[in-house]
Amino acid sequence: MQPTDIMSARVRGLYAVTPDLERTPALVECVTRAIAGGIGLLQYRNKHSVADLRRVQAAQLMPICRRAGVPLIVNDDLELALELGADGVHLGVADGDLAAARRRLGRNRLLGASCYDRYELAVAAREAGADYVAFGSVFPSSTKPDAVRAPLALFGRAKRELRIPTVAIGGITAQNAAEVIRAGADACAVISDLFAAPDIAARAREFNSLFAAATTI
Fold this sequence. Notes:
Layout: H1 5-8, E1 13-17, H2 24-36, E2 41-44, H3 51-68, E3 72-75, H4 78-84, E4 88-91, H5 98-105, E5 110-116, H6 119-128, E6 132-135, H7 153-161, E7 166-169, H8 177-183, E8 187-190, H9 192-195, H10 200-215
Parallel strand pairs: 1-2, 1-8, 2-3, 3-4, 4-5, 5-6, 6-7, 7-8
Helix pairs in contact: 2-3, 2-10, 8-10
């Protein structure tokens, strides 16, 4: 089963991943500022809150993303993504069968897969119908300090062989993102360096300028 080119083409640039915020208004404000700065995608991720709060938060982010034309991806929760009509889901290796998720999502929603530092997982994910794969942690990460490190060479290999977008995640900042982009990553997933910035919109624009510069080389 192969991914759809139309959906894969949407995975480019700054891929914002929400921080764990209990206060929904604060989360909405942060996301609104990130969208104003021009993020390419948004992943709703909250590892610590109860299911009811995750449902409320994701539901409030949906119309904001829709108005801006920014795909909303739900992390690790296929049922929530389907319930809300989100634009896709991102699954880790222990979060469910990718082929089954592909069938339930249909062909018009994005399916992403975490592949850590393992290229063979990326190959399997593509064959199961993933639209993109994520490698990381690329750099030391405060969100996942014990995560395995993914070498930058994975992105070049994936670009040559996989022919689906790759997302770099883990410790990415505006200072080191250019290195990842040069290595071949199509998108950079960022939490802390974006949402902890004094000016979230300005930081998003800073990331976007790095991708813009890469396309002119």
